[in-house]
Amino acid sequence: APPRSRPRRREMSEGDDVLARWSDGLLYLGNVKRVDGVKQCCLVRFEDNSEFWVLRKDIHSFAAGVEEVCCICEAPPLKEPLVNCLKCRHGYHAECHTPSIEPEADSESWICRQCVFAVATKRGGAIKRGRFARLMHFMKLRLPYQLTSLDWDPQHLSNQQQCYCYCAGPGEWNLKMLQCASCGQWFHEACTQCLTKPLLYGDRFYQFQCSVCNKGPETVKRLPMTWVDLAHLVLYHLSLCCKRKYFDFDHEILSFTNENWDSLLLGALSDTPRQERCHNLLNALNSQKDRFVSGKEIKKKKCLFGLQVRAPPPLSSDSSPLITERARRGRRRDGRRPASQELERRRGGENPGQTRDAGREGAVPSGVGQRGLVLNSTH
Question: Positions of the region Disordered (predicted)?
Answer without folding.
Answer: 312-379
